[in-house]
């Protein structure tokens, strides 16, 4: 019979929370020690934003608006797509970080320790989502500095927009974790994650799907970035959302479940 003064044994949930918090701190410290990777990935959407606004902005505005050139119209159209592209860029860093842990033996060492097994993956995922949110805020600040305004969005719509960005980051982070775990090197992980960066380039991020060639429209329309971008535009700019919101949720839930099962299966696999 245990003494009433003996400390209570931690529950499985409390152990998972404690170990996941430890792994999260480890990954955030790791990201701070290698800021060049994060900065390089962050510069890509900022450079594209400035390039398309100041080089192509007048022409794009005239084409989209069907009238005179007004760069502010294209800024409003472009920024939501760039924000989601920012999330795609941060996933490369996630895949590289996970691959480094796998190839350098850190993950194998974690497998032998008395810690919650899922905490290793959860630490990577939460850390990556936090970095994605911070990157989105920084890129959004650049967008505001060059003229983006969202005057029609209510507080509830802003909360929904932030929730959409976080959900999208969570779903694709699990995919990036799986890519990193199966990659034999950091270079391979970077290459494997590149499609997550290129997908926004063939979406409605820069031009409407209707303006694309007919054979190319299904490629742009039936992929996860386009409905997410249109939903974000609707929330921030008051444009029509239609079915895009639930299509986005289905994509996010499906990708998150797929990435989780994939990552867990690889992590639980006995090392060779």
From TrEMBL:
Keywords, sorted A to Z: Antibiotic resistance, Cell membrane, Membrane, Transmembrane, Transmembrane helix, Transport
Compartment(s) where it occurs, according to its Swiss-Prot or TrEMBL record: Cell membrane; Membrane
Membrane topology: Multi-pass membrane protein
Superkingdom per UniProt: Bacteria
Transmembrane segments: 34-54, 74-99, 120-146, 158-182, 194-216, 245-263
Broad class of where this protein is predominantly found: membrane
Positions of the ABC transmembrane type-2 domain: 36-270
Family: Belongs to the ABC-2 integral membrane protein family.
Name assigned to this protein: Transport permease protein
Source organism of the structure: Streptomyces doebereineriae
